[in-house]
Write a structure and sequence with these properties.
alpha/beta, six-stranded mixed beta sheet, four-stranded mixed beta sheet, globular
């Protein structure tokens, strides 16, 4: 979440955060407007989880490369607009696998772990892309489905055609992905997205109700007080 051209720009992470805790959205909105400052807190195990997640993603991409697929990795240092432009060029070229690509419009932004080319016509040509998310959890959570739905919506605009499926890659040596039909969750995604857009523009009062996200939340010390 950040201010861009006077508008709060939202991400897939903001979407999943709002699902688990409305107060987290309120605090993040206040921060980007300079009203609040986040405490210097970072859950000790969060760094480990992030590193394990990165290793899982890298292993999956290496697995795809062994199949002879072409891979494009987006530079992490790229700014948002440059990253989106680079991703669109890679999609237009028909690269098989795009790692940490960037998708966005004026209000929304997203960085899917992996975009994979499928044989389905779009404005790009006789191919299009579907989003993949590499997760450490054995069971897929609602927040993951929301994030993938968000990537699918941004992909629809980018390639001129809606992806049919979205995928989760759980841990395991065979990298067998779990596939979900985009349309099955589209209404749910639109509902949560609309709620977040209202929350991000309104001056709201919310209360820090304890939830499972508290264990890794940077606002925890402020909420605990």
């Amino acid at each position: 979440m950040k201010i861009q051209d006077g508008t709060v720009r939202l991400t897939a992470t903001d979407l999943s955060n709002h699902l688990v805790c409305a107060h987290l959205t309120t605090m993040n909105v206040r921060e980007v407007h300079g009203i609040e400052s986040a405490p210097e807190f970072r859950a000790p195990d969060l760094v480990v989880l992030q590193q394990r997640g990165l290793e899982h993603e890298q292993s999956y991409v290496a697995h795809l490369q062994t199949q002879g697929l072409s891979v494009f990795r987006l530079e992490e240092s790229s700014g948002d607009e440059e990253a989106v432009a680079s991703t669109l060029r890679a999609m237009a070229e028909g690269i098989d696998v795009i790692v940490q690509g960037a998708l966005g419009d004026f209000r929304w932004f997203g960085r899917p772990d992996v975009l994979r080319k499928v044989v389905k016509p779009s404005e790009l040509g006789n191919w299009s892309y579907e989003p993949y998310d590499c997760k450490l959890a054995r069971e897929t959570k609602a927040a993951t489905i929301l994030q993938l739905s968000h990537y699918a919506a941004l992909l629809t605009a980018a390639q001129g055609g809606e992806p049919e499926m979205m995928h989760v890659v759980p841990p395991g040596g065979d990298f067998q992905s779990e596939s979900y039909r985009v349309l099955d969750f589209a209404a749910y995604y639109r509902q949560v997205k609309a709620r977040l857009e209202v929350a991000a523009t309104a001056d709201r009062e919310t209360y820090p109700e304890p939830c499972e996200h508290c264990a890794v939340c940077r606002w925890w010390t402020a909420c605990d007080r």
